[in-house]
Design a protein that fits this description.
Chains A, B: Keywords: Carboxypeptidase, Hydrolase, Metal-binding, Metalloprotease, Protease, Zinc. The structure is a homodimer. Helix content of chain A is 64%, strand content 3%. In chain A, strands 1-3-2 form a 3-stranded mixed beta sheet, sandwiched between helices. By secondary structure, chain A is mainly alpha-helical. The structure holds zinc ion (2 copies). The site of one zinc ion has 4 residues of chain A, from helix 10 and helix 11.
């Protein structure tokens, strides 16, 4: 017989799951549908929901149930769910409500300042609100680090990657630092003089959307349980039963939106295929930010920019947008795999992207640990850009340290998950290839199902039933290992 | 100094207002954006929200505050708010939470069944889910009737029209039964041989939408605080700060969608112009369903189908859709005022519309009182259609008893408010004309502001600060009187 205390605990989290559904839909609507005049009422309603969810998570009754539950009476999956429930309650309980509220206010002010300071290249104007965000994040890090018995930055990192130590992260990133600059300059050198022909617009929005939907279907996206819409910044939101992804179309270009759609479809299929039996519980959620990004990058980078896939894209592009020289198959491959170091992270190619992450990681870690102050950021940024990508960004705050929104609301510790995801994607692809020797041949024939089924079984259907290291080891036979990423980049950019 | 008990009560209702915001947006999304596979999770989330709101409304703390508040310490508006708060709490306290949740789930299932059964003319397929909805509504009616000491159907009616007795409604509807059939056949006779030229499609959806938005702007709709979208069954939803209205376009016809938009714009302007100071409180809500419908019908029937307005529509129609014989000014008036009894309520002309309501009123009242069962509805429907409109609807469920969405979620008692609204609209128009003698001349010149400002002052800005009879009497000098409606119909259809 199942522990009734545990069942009551599940009941509370089912309730929280449904509240989160309302928040997810209101959040999606805010970014895709809502007229500007609705913002104040929406913000109030969403803040009220946050308060409600926090109250439900930290209620004495929740803690009483957690203390009373008998783990030995539970099966393995229930124990995993209990572990995730406990983590979530502890995470909510650790933060003083006054600090949470101060962060929310400071974050809103800083983001508002960012929206005007960035276009004006106004670093000085940004500093006062940003300094307050950093001060509060340091306070949060101090509280979390004390409770967890770890360093301050590690405590923030673990908000996004539970269980990831700074030592493990440094091992991985130090490895990356060894070979990335050399590989990058080799790749740039190899592509010299082979600039691809650029697509010539205008490209109609409806035509691009139909093309995107066709590719989404090919990738297995279930339109009975999701939609594709438009927002200023592409994202994947909604709930597993109704996944809402967005893109932004440009009339002068067509590949950025399409690759963005492929990326978000990776996030979306993960969500759509989380374990049905655990849909309403923490154990049924996506594992972590890095694992999530590994799915979007499996779709976008491993599959979406592979020569095999890009060649299949050609007839679809022509059917949707008409033919033109840029849609020559070899040219499409060159376009998708062009390596060109630049100032902007979100526009970066697959090889330079990790450099943008290393730079941010070093700065945010030093900032949280109190080794540098906000005034030191531009110099550190310039030095790292020079060192890693050979680019001069002095005085250009807009395309330098003011380019990202992440720090404005104190999301320190998030950036590393992008590159961890890229590495994991390469490792998963290698494991899938080994398990399914026909995988590449089948993709070249227009059938991605071997890859998608392998991901479904080994990642999507696992939800949060396993901890991340266990999930990776069971799927690939070893811990996260950046060597697969190096091999992938070498194969595609130096040997392809 | 204001009573702090009262302030705490307001605080709880501010919280409820924000919860309702989330529910309103989830409900709008469900009908406009949500893919079908999202239905189950959405229904669960919305049911959970209902439970939460019900718990908040009926919490011991709410009742303690209500018992402790000192009405004499409050100003007039606060007292009105307290009255509305008390009504809402009492209304919620009557209903067992288990019944509320069962109704929400059954309603969602029945609506889903309706969406497939209606196009398939599948009455038998609809019955199982509908029978459950009726069973739960009868249970609700029994509970409410016992508490209020009234009949079961009256108890449901008062959910939509607080304070309206069945006796008063029967007085009004029996009056209507006396003169409506005669007026209807006279109007049909008078129009014989004057069939208007019908618009020839196809009409593009985007063109129709632009035309609709232009008319909405002319009617004062604020697009900073609202949107126009598409749904199967047009409605006006969202929240006062962000009003979401919908229509349904046909490619072979263009006036139905446009008149629907004008109708929903009446609902929308009421919502957008509710008193700002009471936005988050019950006193700031729209007064009742009949008053709401009086606003949409002031827009659609009193203004939108008047010869003065229709003549102004001509150049806009031509600009949006191109010219054609049907867009001749006199022909447009004939089109807008054509009396032609038909099967579909939402397509009915102004004169036959009340017959559709009388039919539904008789059936739903007998159904709730247990005098008939769901299996009896088609026969009753056929008989009444034959009697009231002389039409045969046997075997045609799609255009018969399956045509409306209302009964799928148990909204019995709602239909009468449509005709009460039509009557009130006529009475309000008469009062506005008397207050503003230039009103018709100004409309004929293309300026509806005298009418709109009068409605804003006398209805929209009043929210629920007055009870319905008081609101009507202050605005028009007398209680609701169907004679204005009869005069309006005679003037337009027999003397115009
Ligand atoms: Zn991503
Ligand atoms: Zn209406």
């Amino acid at each position: 017989m199942t522990d009734t205390t545990y069942q009551q605990l599940e009941g509370r989290f089912t309730r929280l799951h449904r509240y989160a559904h309302l928040g997810a839909m209101a959040g999606w609507d805010q970014l895709t549908m809502m007229p500007t005049g609705g913002n104040e009422a929406r913000a109030e309603a969403m803040a009220e929901l946050s308060v409600l969810m926090h109250e439900t998570l930290t209620a004495p009754e929740t803690r009483r149930l957690l203390a009373a539950v008998e783990p030995s009476s539970l099966n393995e999956a229930q124990q995993a769910n209990l572990r995730e429930i406990r983590r979530e309650v502890e995470d909510a309980t650790i933060m003083p409500p006054s600090l949470v509220e101060a962060q929310s206010l400071a974050g809103a002010r800083c983001e508002k300042a960012w929206r005007t300071c960035r276009p004006n290249n106004d670093w000085e104007g940004f500093l006062p609100t940003f300094r307050e965000v950093v001060r509060l994040s340091r306070e949060e890090a101090r509280i979390r680090a004390e409770a967890a018995g770890c360093s301050r930055y590690e405590a923030l990192l673990q908000k996004f990657e539970p269980g990831l130590t700074l030592e493990a992260l440094d091992d991985i990133f130090n490895d990356l630092r060894q070979w990335l600059p050399g590989l990058l300059s080799e790749a740039v050198e190899r592509q010299r003089g082979q600039d691809p022909v650029l697509p010539q617009g205008p490209f109609g929005e409806a035509d691009q959307r139909r093309l995107g939907e066709r590719v989404m279907r090919w990738l297995g996206f279930d339109f009975e349980h999701g939609r594709l819409d438009v927002s200023l910044h592409p994202f994947c939101g909604g709930v597993p039963d109704d996944v809402r992804l967005t893109t932004r179309y440009r009339s002068d270009e067509c590949l950025t939106a399409l690759m963005g759609i492929i990326h978000e479809t990776g996030h979306a299929r993960y969500e759509q295929n989380l374990p049905e039996a655990w849909r309403r519980q923490p154990a049924g959620r996506a594992r972590s930010m890095a694992v999530h990004e590994s799915q979007s990058l499996s779709f976008e980078m491993q599959l979406g920019r592979s020569a095999a896939f890009v060649r299949q894209l050609r007839p679809w592009l022509i059917e949707a947008l008409g033919d033109q020289p840029a849609f020559d198959a070899d040219n499409l491959v060159r376009l998708s795999q062009q390596v060109r170091p630049g100032l902007i992270r979100v526009d970066a190619d697959e090889v330079s992207y990790p450099a943008h992450i290393l730079l941010r990681y070093d700065i945010e870690r030093a900032l949280i640990e109190g080794e540098i102050e906000v005034e030191d950021i531009p110099t550190r940024w310039d030095e790292a850009m020079q060192h890693l990508l050979g680019l001069d960004t002095r005085g250009n705050y807009r395309d330098g340290c003011l380019q990202d929104i992440h720090w404005t609301d104190g999301s320190f510790g998030y950036f590393p998950t992008y590159s961890l995801g890229a590495m994991l994607a390469a490792q998963l692809m290698a494991a899938a290839r080994q398990a399914e020797p026909q995988l590449d041949a089948r993709i070249a024939e227009g059938d991605p199902s071997l890859l998608l089924e392998w991901l479904r079984t080994h990642i999507w259907q696992q939800g949060s039933l396993l901890e991340t290291p266990e999930l990776i080891t069971r799927a690939t036979g070893e811990a996260l290992n950046p060597e697969y990423y190096r091999r992938h980049l070498r194969a595609r950019y130096l040997e392809g």
